[in-house]
Amino acid sequence: MIIKCPWCGPRDSSEFVYQGEGGRTRPDQSSTDQSAWNAYVYDRVNTAGDHDEIWQHSGGCRSHLKIIRNTVTHKVLSVVFACDTQDQEKPA
Amino acid sequence: MSPRRAASGGLIDRSRTIRFTFDGQEFTGHPGDTVASALLANGVSLFGRSFKYHRPRGILAAGVDEPNALVTVLRGEAREPNIQATMLEIHDGLKVVSQNRFPSLGLDVGALNQLASKLLGAGFYYKTFMGPVIGPLKGTRFWMFCEHLIRRAAGLGKAGLAPDPSRYERMNAFCDVLVVGSGPAGLMAAKAAAENGARVILAEQSARLGGSANWSEDTIDAMPARDWAAGVVADLTTTSNVTMLPRTSVWGYYDGNTIAALERVTDHKTSPRIGEPRQRHWTIRAGKVVLATGAFERPLVFPGNDRPCVMLASAAERFAVEYGILPGEKVAIFTNNDSAYRSAMTMQEAGCRIVAIVDVRTDISPAARAIAVRTGAEILTSRAVTSTEGGKKLHCIKVQDYDIRSGAVSGDARSIDADCLLVSGGWSPVINLASQAGARAEWSERVQAFLPPKDADGWVGAGAFNGTFSLEAALAEGLAAGGASAIDVPAVVDAALDIAPAPVFEIEAKGKAFVDFQHDVTADDVRLAHREGFQSVEHLKRYTTLGMATDQGKTSNVAGLAIMANALGKQIPEVGTTRFRPPFAPVTIGALAAERFGEIRPERLTPMHDWHVAHGATFYSAGLWHRPMIYGLPGETVEQAYVREVKTTREAAGIADVSTLGKIMVQGPDAAYFLDRVYTNTFSTLPVGKARYGLMLREDGLVLDDGTTWRLGRHDFLMTTTTANAGKVMQHLEFLLDVIWPELKVTLTSVTDQWAGASIAGPRSREVLAACVSGTAVDNETLPFMGIVYGEVDGAPVMICRLSFSGELAYEVYSGAGHGTHLWQALIEAGKPFGMVAYGLEALGTMRIEKGHVTGAEIDGRVTARDLHLDWMLSKKKPFVGSMMMDREGLVGPDRLQLVGIMSLDNLPLNGGAHIVEELDRENPHDSIGHMTAACYSPMLGRHIGLALVKAGKSRHGQRVFTSDPLRKRFGPVEIVSHHFYDPEGKRMHG
Amino acid sequence: MVDQLSPLQPVLEAGRHPLADHSVGVTLGETQPGSIVQLAAWRGQEGAAVATIRDVTGLALPDGPGSGAFAETKAAFGFAPGKFLVIDQDEGLAAIFAGAVTSETGSVTDLSHGRTAIRVGGPKAQWVLAKFFAVDFSLSAFPLGSGISTVHHDIFAQIQRTGLEQFDLYVFRSFARAFWTSLRHASEEVGYEVQ
After folding, report:
1. Chain B partners of A53 at a C-beta cutoff of 8 Å?
2. What ipTM was estimated for this complex?
3. How close does chain B come to A8, measured CA to CA in Å?
4. How many structural domains is chain A composed of?
5. Global pTM?
6. Fewer Cβ within 10 Å of end Cβ, chain C: N or C?
């Protein structure tokens, strides 16, 4: 599998490590909502199809990437820096 | 008549002679020969014994599709089994032996299996050896009894026990266009792509490039096809943007056009050059893949179709034209399509006599008939071969009337003398790689075969792969696949035969008719599987093992499906086909391991490594690191050495190499704030020039790691982690910074390798430092516990932090790694007057057990901070990673496994990993209440002690329990005590 | 001042190991720079970092990921978003950068002892490196002066192209000897010279 790192360009999947599902939202650091924390740590969608994922280019620039990958065909549909998407999701 | 070499012809170099041995007998051949062609040239027709029935077998095919002629290659002590004689090039000194025969190929006692063949049909193993024991000759226990004999009697070649001395390598390649197959279509595609300026790789599994051009009688561009191919190959070879890879089997097609290929670099050489690998494993990332993999001719299924000298028609053509071999004198042909007529023509021109052409069809095309007439052969339409006669060679064939509509055989059998029977059952495009890439094969009524789909992602097909059997059309497809239109398709003269076969796969008559030659699966086995209820093609495959041998059913898949479909009363496309999996051709394990063959992991060495080696250290691998275990004196045991090292350290001073500790620079205006979030305790309050012990939890509230972090500047922290967890901690922190809190201005950098670290411990450690450190004082005032100072040791700049793992007064002295050996030697010199020793991991481990400090053995991913009695480190003033999850139900409570000390009561050693039990039962150990995590002999207590995680351990201090270690047979009484064995008040450390 | 001791020093063994035809496909050596410094810029401050590198070293880095530049005794390239490796044959570069970079723009980390610099050159340099790294070393994909981060199993490497046929590799010091051994082994096939 090839992942096109937005910084390094296309690289072999062996340079990357999977770091969990991408759709999860971590509660605010000071949140005391136990169910929200439980959901963040344990709940997974596990889609058969287009799947939100976080990968780290650990054998390259070490950036974390937000990837949409089809878990049935292994086709990588989009790759962006995880830090960029995080900014958008944060309330202004 | 035996097969022989024609007086002239072939692409072999007759001016040179090569000597090799087969089953110990010397044979000769010429450069360009394979073992198959050279042995045929020498009149050998018997190549091996079949898998189950030990039937004599000869050559069926001429290339990678050969199912029968498997040999074992001997290289020194090493033996490599199951190599196709048709793919193995000869070289001087090559030694090959035949397989699955005893005592010899010609005289094989295993052939008696044929007498018992009724018992050995499909599902023999399941029926005989699975399930409950009913009488003495059934069931799993019977299998245990028979396994040894059966494994000897059935099977392919034997692997050797000697290590493989060969060298293997890996290669990464990138290209715009990868062309697989160098036949006319592939060459055309490569040429077109190269002329477009693309980076091209052309992979060909055979030694000779050109594919079918090497054995066809066609004309391209007004010259023989093989001359045209040779010209194109010569051009491409000198083109800078083209890489030619002969002897390279493309065997795997993975996601994202990642292609795996195996190049046989020196298998054909008597003596490889220095440094040349035997095989090279290529991983090719291709923008586009052109699949020009051609088609395999299929045999027909009829009784006796596996006799030596029954051969695929195209294989005979190839042997005749490429190798100058005449497979027989009196050649008969049996076909369901027109392509065999071209074969007949070729064989006749090569010098054979074509005695008969047996065709199942009623009508044949005028072109085919014209060829048949020219060969002088008797044309027998509406006829079929229903048996063959002979032993290890063919003597004659029996022909009967055949009704193509009903498939019925009738009339008297007519005997025709022939020493070679060429068979053609139609052609199957080699769609294996496309299938691996996810393409769903489509059945073609016209070609009677599975074709690749038209629309593909990442690859494009050309030539016979697409079911395109006209040479002109194949060249045009190659051009288009290579991305060209400017060049005209070269003019072509070919036999102009339509290969579309009649839908006949099997002639049902009395006798064993083989579908899968390599696994000895007959047509009756397929029908038996159907009768026993196996209806899906996947089940059929597993039950009969059809298509599961090393050839992966290259010659058998379609016939097997056709017979199954017939039994089910369905059409072939309704039955479907199985998806091909890698590898397309066998791959050596050595090639997959490549440069890691033998040496599995790279060594990671500290800056002082050579000193340790020179001073008698015994090493221990901790992850990838090599760390001194002990510095043994002559005659010392490991225990004596570490006991001495511990005693000397605790009584005077000791020095240890701690360079392996994970070190991460945490820098930036938000660094302190970040550390407050990731550590359970507070770091923002830590003054510059001081260190603090920190504990980190995972998001789920369990302990991740511990270590000290030093504040070197307002925005600069040096974090240390345990040696084993350095990478894990780094990844954890990077994830938080990059994904969760990208707004924080913090840089993380691994500086483990930047620093050499020496830990000096013991009551006299301060004196040692005072003797060698300049530029700073090291007294209690200047350098208090957890303080940091900067100075020099013998000219090398150092940073010293006073902290202790051993429980003694201790310091960690750091210098740049490049100064590590210099620093170490200076410290050793300075320590001499004080009796300082160098100590290794065993002593370090012993001292930490005596102090009850935790490491990775206790922090096993299941423990909480409270389990380790580290509650005091959990800040209540701030949230931190894991703080909301650490007190969940199940993670708190009195029955958790908690850290305790264990003391041996029988004065015998304890073992890490042993269980702790309340009731000792050697025969049937039960009810573990916990396990030992570490153990040692404590020189200070004079006892065997250890640490353990024990259920409700905290409340059990003083309890007598038992260690239970059935694997090592160590059982005995122990006492649960506090994990602080030695100096619990910490007076020594602060002294 | 004490000299740095290279981890390769005891195993370097300068000399020629040519093929039978006396040809040598690659030359291997250690460049032993006095300074290897990492410069990290906060988001939005990348331009300031590039300017600082230019001011301190005179090297002008073009825009774009992995861009770099090199001169006789100095080199610099980006190896990750906002991160640059700056190399100088002289010691003391980290201190100069520490004075030039404020906590408002980024951070400076001295790696002079932590990385070992290995130079691979010659007509077969790409061939030998391709045995280790799944990276396209062709000039079009890996232009002169530019840098990359990649990995060979456990051995992390930052690589800069410093010639049409020359690459400088920065590997973790603790792995340098293991990598060097593998590199020599892989070079045997094409003939090599250790300088």
Report:
1. none
2. 0.97
3. 15
4. 1
5. 0.93
6. N
